[in-house]
Amino acid sequence: MSGFFSALSTTLDPLCGPVGIFSLFGAGSLVACGDAGWGDEIAAGVRMTISLAIVTLPVGLIIGFLIALAAQSEDKLLRLAAGIYTTIFRGLPELLTLFLIYYGLQILIQALLSWMGYEERIEINAFVAGVTALSVVFSSYSSEVLLSAFRAIPRGQYEAGDALGLRRWRTMRLVVMPQLIRIALPGLTNLWLILLKDTSYASAIGLAEILRQTGIAARVSKEAFFFYGIACLLYLILATLSSVGLGFLERNVRRSEGRR
């Protein structure tokens, strides 16, 4: 089954697939696919960038939603914890957060295992570290967007749900969440575009995404302007496609809200 999906992804690859851009127009150039050029490596970097962003998005949204709930909780300790969380991870540079998680967690886990008598060296997977760091940063910003959306929903919406005999979780799912999505979507769209660009930080811990792959190609071939130009173009294409798709989603959400 894994072989089937691998073959399918290769066939549908927009860069090095049978009808890919590099396959059709890059033959004999530095971006040729196969052993003749760097097309395969750059295509793999694009897949890694997209995978990193797509995996990070739901994780960051879930954490951000929980932080937003904590920030408006009646419990002072929860509000304090949410405030400390967002202050720290919105204040730290993304690259520093990545280093702290990648190296700091390794040291912490190694120290814990050593205390338990296990002396083998432990190394955290770079993809897991990248997802964790980007999720933490994304959640700290998305929690503020979601918190603002929560505050834009009148308290009467909750009271109406209580008056109808709905449990609080049903009121949240049926009444609050549809409005929350509509209000928060523009802000979350901007955060998604920022997340796409922030995936480039993962190159610092050896993750083979767009910037790392084009950087290696630039150093080996001595064609820095050419390959970094390709990296710019790829990021712009991803951002444009995301903007078009999310714009379509936002219009549909508003249209469905209008029909209500």
UniProtKB/TrEMBL annotation:
Record family assignment: Belongs to the binding-protein-dependent transport system permease family. HisMQ subfamily.
PANTHER family: ARGININE ABC TRANSPORTER PERMEASE PROTEIN ARTQ, CATIONIC AMINO ACID TRANSPORTER, MEMBRANE COMPONENT
Transmembrane residue ranges: 50-71, 100-118, 124-153, 174-195, 225-249
Organism, as annotated: Rhizobium puerariae
InterPro entries referenced in this protein's UniProt entry, alphabetically: AA_ABC_transptr_permease_3TM, ABC_transp_permease_HisMQ, MetI-like, MetI-like_sf
Subcellular location: Cell inner membrane; Cell membrane
Pfam family, one: BPD_transp_1
Principal location listed in the UniProt entry: membrane
Bilayer topology: Multi-pass membrane protein
Lineage, top ranks: Bacteria, Pseudomonadati, Pseudomonadota, Alphaproteobacteria, Hyphomicrobiales
Protein name, UniProt field: ABC transporter permease
Domain ABC transmembrane type-1: 46-245
Keyword terms, alphabetized: Cell inner membrane, Cell membrane, Membrane, Transmembrane, Transmembrane helix, Transport
